[in-house]
Amino acid sequence: MSSSPRVQSMNVAEAETRSTIGTAAKKASPFITHKAVSKSLRKLERSSSGLTGSDEKTSYATPTETLSSSSHKHTLNAASILRRHEQNLNSNLSLNASFSSDASMDSFHSRASTGRLIRSYSVGSRSKSYPSKPRSVVSEGALDSPPSGSETKKRCAWVTPNSDPCYIVFHDEEWGVPVHDDKRLFELLVLSGALAEHTWPMILSKRQTFREVFADFDPNAIVKINEKKLIGPGSPASTLLSDLKLRAVIENARQILKVIEEYGSFDKYIWSFVKNKGIVSKFRYQRQVPAKTPKAEVISKDLVRRGFRSVGPTVVYSFMQAAGITNDHLTSCFRFHHCIFEQERYV
Fold it and tell me: Which residues are involved in binding Zn(2+) (predicted)?
């Protein structure tokens, strides 16, 4: 009976502590349990009871009587220890609850400029920042970001990165550009006729030799060339074309001089077939580009009638493409609009 007040006071404190812990535990993370708290309280209770064990012999008349000074001090010390411990537990529980709740929450912030969502973690520790990869925003089939300087130009499908450099230069600077100089027109007509025996890259690689053999494609100089020396064995011309083609070049030079006498220039004659306005084909795919056209057949027939040789419709159409009489650059090629602009300058 003498120790009943102490037990009752300890139970009250324990009940208060348990009620407080139970309230905080609802908000805290589950890794702190009631057992751990009650165990710590029991240890404190035992220590407090040990402190007051020497005074158990003191009798109390009633529960309401005052305690002795020594036992009263020990009881107050035990109660203050319990209160401090309870406060520490409550503070620890609240901190754990806040940290666990903050660690489990993710906040998403939207950026108005990019429309992307970025996840930020509100954890006390520093989070690593990872640099975002550059994006290219696509709108209406074009890149919003400026293209890099190393981006290659879009050319016709038959010109690839593996093509001969001289062929790429010919495509980018000459092929499809309107030509109105008689010597250059004659050169392109001869080179187009050579396509029956060689390819454009091979012809262009020997272009300088062509110009040296045929006197820079001057018709007046070509008609003076000795045919036997031209086609003789070991001559530079024999490495370019067959004998039949070499003789055709000399004969065509004679016929060009006659056309110049009639029309004033070979330029006026050849461009009259298209009324001095180049044809724009607007082909999208390589398979759409023909080997010849009705217009090429008309020009071929007139040239043959005048005495020209090796000027079939296929050769004539290749000549029309090279001389810009027809613009057969694909619409996706960067040279398509350039050649149209060059044609409009001469209209």
Answer: 156, 171, 329, 333
